[in-house]
Design brief:
The chain is α/β, with parallel strands linked by helices. Helices cover about 40% and strands about 25% of the residues. A six-stranded mixed β-sheet has the order 5-4-3-2-1-6. α3 links the parallel β4 and β5 (about 115-120). The chain is globular, with a radius of gyration of 15 Å. The two termini are about 15 Å apart.
Length: about 160
């Protein structure tokens, strides 16, 4: 499954995992879900790009289009909170796209999120002010309940 949104109620923290073969539509569908369900935007979030991800179907132009659509979805929400959004990338192929996304994001900061990339879950957990125990949960994904899955493949779709 390319994108999975999970949530840990005890930690009040969301986790988005990117894995498998992805396409730009998966990214757009995830952003549209968040715009339609802004309750999930109120939580700090760790996003993980797993090793072995296949992003061959996503060009930088595709990513620019998703970025523009993302902005159009979120600006009308007038979000009134600040959340922390940490990224951990385990893939060189994924890093190329993440670096492009973060460069665009940092050039055009939004007032509702502080977005940073970390080399490890431990560094992300420290920034999120998590205890060592909770950082271990963050890293393992234990206790995170599936909220939504995004896979534009013809045989799959959004599951709630």
């Amino acid at each position: 499954m390319p994108i999975v949104l999970r949530h840990n109620a005890a930690l009040e923290l969301s986790r988005v995992e990117y894995a498998g073969a992805m396409c730009a539509q998966d990214l757009h569908d995830h952003a549209a879900f968040n715009a339609d369900n802004p309750v999930w935007l109120g939580f700090d979030c760790i996003s993980v790009i797993h090793a072995g991800i296949d992003v061959g179907a996503i060009s930088l132009a595709n990513l620019d289009g998703v970025f523009k659509a993302h902005r159009q979805l979120f600006e009308p929400l007038n979000l009134m909170f600040m959340r922390r959004s940490a990224w951990v990338c385990e893939s060189a192929a994924g890093q190329r796209l993440l670096s492009h996304w973060l460069a665009k994001r940092n050039a055009d900061k939004s007032p509702w999120a502080d977005v940073r990339q970390f080399d490890s879950f431990e560094a992300a957990g420290a920034w999120m002010l998590l205890s060592t125990e909770n950082t271990a949960i963050l890293k393992s994904g234990e206790g995170f309940k599936d909220i939504a899955r995004f896979d534009a493949a013809p045989t799959a779709g959004l599951v709630r």
